[in-house]
Fold this sequence. Notes:
By secondary structure, the chain is α/β, with parallel strands linked by helices. Helices cover 46% and strands 18% of the residues. The chain has a single domain, classed as Alpha-Beta Complex (Maf protein). The protein has helices at 4-21, 36-42, 60-67, 71-77, 82-96, 143-163, and strands at 26-30, 55-56, 100-106, 121-128, 131-138. It has a five-stranded mixed sheet with strand order 2-1-3-4-5, with helices on both faces.
Amino acid sequence: MASLAEYIDQKAAALLDIMLAKQATVTFAESCTGGMLSAAFTRHAGASAALTRSYVTYCDAAKAEILGVSTDALARYTAVSAQVAAQMALGAQRLAGADIAVSVTGLAGPGGGTAAQPVGLVYIGCAAKGGVRVVRAIFPGDRDMVRQQAALTAYRLALAAAAAL
């Protein structure tokens, strides 16, 4: 059985193939995955034709300053929210001029969770020509498992958007 890391790698390769075939570009705006998406994507030859830039915006200030996430959304909904995931994806898409932008924000743990926002809660955004879609998930496991499951889900969302280009 393949590991989560191998599945992520397979999905990254599949996304790259689609992006190259469609002469399209992708960008990533990552928080709790800390660069996992762009690392998996750039592991494959030819990635530079489809990825011109990527963003790791781990703290709220970076989300606001770099991606243009509104401080009101951060204060009202917190960084771990559908609203912020959507704004992260749209901001990255605008900055990179990409056809598709994928964002990930969440609580990987082991600490920091609450009853309303438990550890493992992740929001994944995907901005494409049809607008922005956000998926909410609560992933089980330790910090690495949460991050890997978030990355795999983000790639699945990106693949669906890429197929519709």
